[in-house]
Amino acid sequence: xxxxxxxxxxxxxxxxxxxxxxxxxxxxxxxxxxxxxxxxxxxxxxxxxxxxxxxxxxxxxxxxxxxxxxxxxxxxxxxxxxxxxxxxxxxxxxxxxxxxxxxxxxxxxxxxxxxxxxxxxxxxxxxxxxxxxxxxxxxxxxxxxxxxxxxxxxxxxxxxxxxxxxxxxxxxxxxxxxxxxxxxxxxxxxxxxxxxxxxxxxxxxxxxxxxxxxxxxxxxxxxxxxxxxxxxxxxxxxxxxxxxxxxxxxxxxxxxxxxxxxxxxx
Length: 266
What we know:
It is a single chain. Strand 1 and strand 2 form a beta hairpin. The chain has a six-stranded antiparallel sheet with strand order 2-1-5-4-3-6, with helices on both faces. Helices cover 45% and strands 15% of the residues. Helix 7 crosses helix 8.
């Protein structure tokens, strides 16, 4: 038997929130209801965001109508149009992932490269469905922790904190000249992303990415088949993993479940 609306509300507000507050102090986590309303966040989340009352900043909701320029600027420290738009796209992708968790009752995992307090940082994030004792879905909980995406956290932080001009990779820095798109693809692959994940970051199809890899990049490394493992080995020996294209220094979401990418984001 399905829970009545009041029963569900009472369980979430009188049981789940109390349990969350007792058990999640040291974790970076948050609890949402099934309408996307942010119910409570952990002390660690408050500390990492550096905001006294994150609930009031988000108007107690995280939904498509609330991804405003003002809220983005408050939460991230960025106000320029380019970053704002990229962050808005990333937020909408996160909201869609929440909806997938609620609809299918499955957890999802992704890497979030979104600035906070004017500094880029990458985090491993999990969205997890929360069930009532009866087995009915009643809420969604998030967990996040720092992770070293691409090994470029330090570079991105310096770029933003010191207000330096982006590093320009001149032709003599790398032995084989690549277009910006080719360098983006190669960099993501040598950093360990799958073709699906790299395509998702670049917002192109997996087929398009594979075509770029096999037809445009491999021949430049004297590889005339689809041996991407050999391509990656040669690229690493030539230090292509050390240089991030400037175009990748932007907010993005990297979904770690290839089936979800294929089903909802291609």
